[in-house]
UniProtKB/TrEMBL annotation:
Ranges for region Disordered: 145-164
Domain called Ecto-NOX disulfide-thiol exchanger 1/2: residue spans: 174-270
Biased composition (Acidic residues): 148-157
Protein name per its UniProtKB record: Ecto-NOX disulfide-thiol exchanger 1/2 domain-containing protein
Pfam family, one: ENOX1
GO cellular component: external side of plasma membrane
GO MF entries: NADH dehydrogenase activity; protein disulfide isomerase activity
Organism: Gopherus agassizii
PANTHER family in alphabetical order: ECTO-NOX DISULFIDE-THIOL EXCHANGER, ECTO-NOX DISULFIDE-THIOL EXCHANGER 1
GO-annotated biological processes: ultradian rhythm
Coiled coil: 56-83, 175-274
Keywords from the named record: Coiled coil
């Protein structure tokens, strides 16, 4: 591979090596690299010492040039920061105005005229604008905090050149930024006041609506409760009348039974006296006759209990119970039957069903199934058999 080309020595050069160091920054790096190579390689001797001194002096002069360039760039950077801060302040002001427009649109006098979809879009736009405004405000506050920290550092420093950077234009820009921030805060305060007033109005309207709705609900609930109590009272009154009728009928039957029993006792007494006179055979015949009369009396009482229906409700119950037991040929206990009837009428009791079944022995009969602990009473539908005996 070919060897790298080394820089020429200054003794062979026709031009002043120091002129390379005075070139622009683009050529300065190349020139300083050549100078460094010459010095490290040992090209400095008594004959070329003055030339090398001139080049080193030129390098030292370039230091001042670099410092001037750095100061210029720092000034440009400060101006760019100030321009950016002013632009950001203007943008933030416009954001505040836009948010104020959205807040004004949400007031009731304007809000009620927008459609549901329009309200939704306005609310979305408002939230997005508030987020952007807050982000820009935070960024601007961050810049101002950095400036305050820099100014604090500048105050503690003894370098007078840094203190001169805070000139009249910076103070003017800061005053303008403070004015814009004050306007922005005033816009926000007005928007918050409007929102608070709107919330108060909506809360008052909602409270009146809820209060009216609560009163209507209470009134409706009381009316329903009163209707339920009236229906329950009518049902109890009807049941009480039925019980009174049953009690009156039972009293009449008891009176009639007692009278018949008294007659039978007198007849039995007479028969006994006659038996003592006529002998034992006639006594047996009288006893058989007495048993027959008692059984006949029981059948008459049973027929009286089973005659007629007291209300249309009993007719409906008989029809439903008959249908239920007809599809249960092996019968059903009173608890099973009562649980079925409860689904149709929750006010009916098991005692009421059993009393109705006992009043109709030719339609319903009770049988016992099982033995011991499994003994169970079941009711069966027997109207097809009972009609043959009537």
């Amino acid at each position: 591979a070919p060897s790298p080309v080394e820089p020429e020595t200054p003794v062979c050069s026709n031009k002043d090596p120091g002129s390379e160091l005075l070139a622009p920054n683009l050529k300065f790096s190349e020139a300083i690299t050549v100078l460094l190579t010459w010095i490290e390689r040992g090209e400095v001797n008594r004959r070329s010492a003055n030339q090398f001194y001139s080049m080193v002096q030129s390098a030292n002069s370039h230091v001042r040039r670099l410092m001037n360039e750095k100061a210029t760039h720092e000034q440009e950077m400060e101006q760019a920061k100030e321009s950016f801060k002013n632009a950001l302040t203007g943008i933030l002001t416009q954001f505040e105005q836009i948010v104020a427009v959205f807040n004004a649109s949400t007031r009731q006098k304007a809000w009620d005229h927008f459609s549901k979809a329009q309200r939704k879009n306005i609310d979305i736009w408002r939230k997005h604008s508030e987020e952007l405004r807050n982000a820009h405000s935070e960024q601007l506050m961050g810049i101002r905090r950095e400036e305050e920290m820099e100014m604090s550092d500048d105050d503690s420093s003894d370098n007078p050149s840094k203190k001169l950077r805070v000139d009249e234009s910076a103070l003017t820009a800061q005053a303008y930024a403070l004015k814009e921030e004050n306007d922005s805060l005033r816009w926000q305060l007005d928007a918050y006041r409007n929102e608070v007033e709107l919330l108060k109005q909506e809360k008052g309207q909602l409270f009146r609506t809820e209060e009216s709705l609560t009163k209507d609900q209470q009134l409706k609930f009381l009316q329903q409760t009163m209707q339920g109590m009236q229906q329950q009272l009518l049902s109890i009154q009807e049941e009480l009348n039925n019980k009174k009728s049953e009690l009156q009928q039972a009293k009449e039957e008891q009176t009639h039974t007692e009278a018949r029993l008294k007659v039978l006792q007198e007849q039995l007494k007479s028969a006994k006296e006659l038996a003592e006179i006529n002998g034992q055979d006639e006594s047996q015949e009288i006893n058989m006759l007495t048993v027959a009369l008692v059984n006949q009396e029981r059948e008459k009482n049973s027929e009286k209990r089973s005659q007629g229906l007291k209300s249309e409700k009993e007719a409906l119950l008989i029809g439903i119970i008959s249908t239920f037991l007809h599809v249960h040929p092996f019968g059903a206990n009173i608890e099973y039957l009562w649980s079925y009837m409860q689904q149709l009428d929750s006010r009916i009791s098991a005692n009421e069903i059993e009393t109705l079944l006992m009043r109709l022995p030719r339609m319903f009969k009770q049988e016992f199934t099982g033995v011991g602990a499994t003994l169970e009473k079941r009711w069966k539908f027997c109207a097809f058999e009972g009609i043959k005996t009537t």
